[in-house]
Task: inverse folding
């Protein structure tokens, strides 16, 4: 009898509390700003370049990740940044030219998106965006890519309670605008790091390179020397040196003669004729999975790339002199040299990065 009365009293009390709450509105958990710093685990890489006016936070990076995979950024809601920057392809595109929402091809091969925190010389092949936040908005508006207006994107995202909540967590208010979008996408892209390849593990003593890989490493680092063919190398480190295997420069690597050149590259931005045919030197990390290669994707395989440097250099007025020095003789690489060099390049593939869960779609 006592137990029954207790149950009735408890039920009545719960009912009264519930009715009292429903007189106004059922309480919900407040969405609050979270400024927990996001720490980039850069490992053996040097300290990254991070913008002081856009400090990375856990919620800011998460918002950027959501936007990176958000198809509402495109005109017909079918394409996202991740459509042309696929994680398993090193956040690049396996097609020569990405196809946009109007089924039109782009003009250049999609560049890989990783280790951008170590780039200090603008973005895109021609460097037309000074900051990563600027770069993040251009594909949305490009008629060959997403072909959407920023006003429309803001309207679509503003209609989503999920995005209002996430903008509040990241920036303190539910207002969606293009500046916040760009800052969040910058944060996410800066957070994408590749630093655990077999080569990185070799540097820390965790693994050993095979005989072929080690020989390829020596060829990669050794300079071209036509006077001593036996010790002449592939001279790759001239352009692809340092911990990120690039040099933060724009260079003409002898793809075309002046007459053959149809894409003037960096000159289009600087209006300086000395920059004609120069393009941003990309990192060679994950190069085995980021083909096709060059700004126009003309080479499908690493073998074709090496053949270009070994026997296909074209002379032009702005070609790098170090590249031109090899024009008459090539790099003197044997077939065994080419195999060893490619085997070394494959040690730059980072399977941890290619499968990292925090870089995958959050949806």
Result:
């Amino acid at each position: 009898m006592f137990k029954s009365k207790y149950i009735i009293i408890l039920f009545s009390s719960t009912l009264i509390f519930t009715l009292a709450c429903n007189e106004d509105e059922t309480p919900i958990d407040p969405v609050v700003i979270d400024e927990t710093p996001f720490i980039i685990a850069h490992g053996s890489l040097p300290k990254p370049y991070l913008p002081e006016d856009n400090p990375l936070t856990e919620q800011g990076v998460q918002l950027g990740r959501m936007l990176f995979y958000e198809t509402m950024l495109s005109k017909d809601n079918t394409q996202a940044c991740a459509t042309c920057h696929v994680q398993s392809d090193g956040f690049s595109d396996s097609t020569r030219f990405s196809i946009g929402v109007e089924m039109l091809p782009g003009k250049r091969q999609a560049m890989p998106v990783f280790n951008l925190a170590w780039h200090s010389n603008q973005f895109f092949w021609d460097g037309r965006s000074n900051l990563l936040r600027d770069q993040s908005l251009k594909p949305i508006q490009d008629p060959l890519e997403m072909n959407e207006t920023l006003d429309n994107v803001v309207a679509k995202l503003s209609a989503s309670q999920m995005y209002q909540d996430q903008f509040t967590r990241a920036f303190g208010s539910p207002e969606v605008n293009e500046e916040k979008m760009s800052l969040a996408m910058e944060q996410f892209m800066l957070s994408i790091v590749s630093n655990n390849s077999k080569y990185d593990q070799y540097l820390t003593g965790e693994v050993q390179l095979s005989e072929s890989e080690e020989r390829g490493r020596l060829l990669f680092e050794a300079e071209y020397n036509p006077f001593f063919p036996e010790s002449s190398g592939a001279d790759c480190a001239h352009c692809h040196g340092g911990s990120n295997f690039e040099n933060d420069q724009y260079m003409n690597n002898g793809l075309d003669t002046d007459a053959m050149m149809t894409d003037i590259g960096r000159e289009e931005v600087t209006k300086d004729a000395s920059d004609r045919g120069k393009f941003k030197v990309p990192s060679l990390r994950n190069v085995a999975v980021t083909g096709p290669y060059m700004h126009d994707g003309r080479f499908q395989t690493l073998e074709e790339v090496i053949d270009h440097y070994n026997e296909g250099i074209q002379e032009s007025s702005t070609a790098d002199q170090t590249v031109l020095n090899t024009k008459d003789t090539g790099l003197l690489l044997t077939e065994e040299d080419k195999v060893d060099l490619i085997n070394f390049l494959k040690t730059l593939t980072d399977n941890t990065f290619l499968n990292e869960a925090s870089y995958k779609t959050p949806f």
Observations:
- The chain has two domains: 58-193, 198-351.
